[in-house]
Design brief:
This protein is of the alpha+beta class. The chain contains 6 helices and 5 strands, in the order αββαααβααββ. Helix content is 32%, strand content 20%. Strand 1 and strand 2 form a beta hairpin. The N and C termini lie far apart (71 Å).
């Protein structure tokens, strides 16, 4: 097969020769603009939460409000090679939570040690929150009133009862 060398001058000629002809009444369209910067498609990737008890740091400050981002495949795979998880599979959730929690109060360096020092009720809350956010895509839970047996939804991300 024979190859043809194309220079910048030849390319312009080729494009003009192969361009579709426009009707007399139809205007020639300009070339399409470069794609716009990344568009926001409405995907929510970070979710706010409020811990039931709160994380107490080294100075005794209680932190209750925080944020968790959506997990990636890497987040779920990385703990599988962690030696602590291999020795104790229950440690998986501690490592996983430390990777996806972006902040707790003013603490932005959330690592395994921070999650280890949390109360068990807060860790259980975060495990459920993680499951809801990453599996179901929302933070709402269906509940039933113990008095009237009526069903309704609550938002687990920290809103107080009665707030909208």
């Amino acid at each position: 097969m024979r190859r043809r060398t194309v220079t910048a001058g030849n390319l312009d000629e080729i494009l003009q020769a192969t361009a579709p002809t426009a009707d007399a009444g139809e205007a020639v369209r300009p070339p399409p603009a470069a794609p716009a910067a990344r568009q926001d498609h409405g995907l929510r990737t970070e979710f706010e939460f409020e811990l039931p008890r709160g994380y107490v740091d080294e100075t005794g400050t209680v932190h209750r409000h925080g944020a968790m981002r959506l997990a990636t495949a890497r987040d779920e795979l990385r703990p599988q090679i962690d030696l602590r998880v291999k020795e104790n599979p229950a440690y998986l959730s501690v490592v996983l939570l430390s990777q996806v929690i972006t902040r707790i109060g003013t603490v932005t360096d959330v690592h395994v040690g921070v999650v280890e020092r949390m109360y068990a009720t807060d860790v259980a809350f975060l495990q459920d929150f993680y499951r809801r956010v990453n599996s179901e895509g929302h933070t709402r839970a269906a509940v039933t009133c113990p008095h009237c047996e009526g069903g309704f939804e609550v938002d687990l991300s920290g809103g107080r009862l009665g707030e909208s």
